[in-house]
Amino acid sequence: MNKLKRTEIFTRLRHDNPHPATELEYTNPYQLLVAVTLSAQATDVGVNKATRALFQKVRTPQALLKLGETGLKEYIKTIGLFNTKARNLIAAARILVREHNGEVPATREALEALPGVGRKTANVVLNTAFGQPTIAVDTHIFRVSNRTGIAPGKNVNEVERRLERCVPEAFRQDAHHWLILHGRYTCVARTPRCGSCTIEDLCEYRHKTEL
DNA sequence: ATCCCGAGGG
DNA sequence: CCCTCTGGAT
What sign for the dihedral angle of Cα A98, A104, A105, A108? Predict the structure, then answer.
């Protein structure tokens, strides 16, 4: 896909989503870290329900340690992988209190050193909590990139590299949100809503029979 | 059956 | 690079 076409796509996606930062319910670093950690292999609806209840009581790593692993599981027991997530979040809270003064670090290295925090979660925290020009390639962005032809790749790492190469830093933070929102509401996994898609004429999907 | 705003390990 | 983990939704 050429640069002109890609630029036009992002222009339209921006028009579709004028306030991209509202995509996530939380921008507070710690709440964001917890919410994104819980979101692995879980629906956003289920995660948002759990975090809304949890954050009534817990907004800091200190508060989470007070709640304890068993207490935490009560809030997230309907979410996939909740045993692992609870264990990781407690372990991460200990590190935050002991090594980072109870604050969420703003560097990729420190973030990814936390149990349960990988590249995707670190990128979201850097993007949304700390305003860094990262693109966190989740399943939505991976699908949209490949289906449309914006930045196709075999795996998430390749898609991330290609996106960072073709999206200028100046609007990379917003582009991350445009892509996710497009994937969630229009370019959905099973049955994409091409009828209401504003970039259909530029999308490579209609020329294929799969993906 | 397949997918969901992944991480960790083989 | 690919698999598995695990619960709910579609």
Answer: positive
Both tokens of A196, joined, read 């209401």
Q: pLDDT band for position A210 (50/70/90)?
A: very low
**pLDDT confidence tier of residue A107, bands split at 50, 70 and 90:** very high
Q: Gap from A176 CA to C10 C1', in Å? A: 26
> Which residue, counting CA atoms, is nearest to the C1' of nucleotide C7?
A80
Which single residue is written with the structure tokens 């917890």?
A: A34
Provide the 3-class DSSP secondary structure of residue A140: helix
In chain A, the domains with their CATH numbers are 3-20+134-207 (1.10.1670.10), 23-129 (1.10.340.30)
Contacts of A28 (CB under 8 A, 6+ apart): A59, A129
Annotated catalytic residues of A are 120, 138
Residue–nucleotide distance: A195 CA to B6 C1' (Å): 31
Residues 31-60 of A with CB under 7 A from strand B: 36-37, 39-44
The gap between A66 CA and B4 C1' (Å) is 30
What is the pLDDT confidence band of residue A209, given thresholds at 50, 70 and 90?
very low
- Shortest CA to C1' contact from A124: nucleotide: B5
Q: Report, as an integer, the average pLDDT of A78-98.
A: 94
